[in-house]
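Fold this complex.
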Amino acid sequence: MEQPADRYSDLEKSDIFNNEFMVHIDALYNFAYKLTLNEDDAKDLLQDTCMKAFRFINSFEQGTNAKAWLFRILKNSFINEYRKKSKNPGMVDYQEVETYYNSDENEGQVQTTPDLRSETVKGMLGDEITNALNSLDVDFKTVIILCDLEGFKYDEMAKILDIPIGTVRSRLHRARNMLKLKLATYAASMGYK
Amino acid sequence: MGAFIRWIQRAMMSKEARCKEEERCLELVRLMLDDQATKEDSEYVLKHIDGCYRCYDNYDLEKTIRKAVKSKTKNLEVSNEIVEEIKSKVPI
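Structure:
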């Protein structure tokens, strides 16, 4: 991240940090928790994000979209950590997963989804929905979190994730197909009707 | 009227019955629910699902899944201790 020379006074930095950054702390913590699935890791990731946000505060333009800026920092911190862990053979390489789901032979996956009814989803417990979401590959889960839980628009998600808007759209479409498949499979296994 | 047509369609169509425009309509439904569709696309979707039970069903399911994800997943609040810890580490 390029660091412009001191753009803000100490007072301005304090004002930005307290009034533009800290108001998003719950959303950041929830995002961190949903990525790490562990409260201690989420706390560490949150702290790391806040430290970096302050350190690079001169790169932030006051009055612009602080939430998206902070989510981008958090996502990058998580991905860097995740990539380290992905050297572990047990972890999945995200790019390979997306390439697989983007391939033509996997198009129309939604058509093979077992039947799933709205009433079934309405009757599911929070844990069941959460487990289905968590079972998605991390970047597919991320787009659903950013869009459905945090209400980011596609252009904001593109900036947070550092990908073109078209990729946001297609990734989200595939993520939703996969989530639907997970929910349907789970519902079938539990005998939901 | 639309609801009546859908009821008739539901009664007559098997679960496997497909709509030729289902894939396209599903993409547009998702854009519409994400508030990213154009006015024309939204109008197309609303008109189409009014007469196509299959796509109406997809629309209803998409809406329900979004609502379930939002309302049924855990929402944590950061404790004051964590906030204070963070503030103590930031030189302000």
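The two ends of chain A are 51 Å apart (CA to CA).
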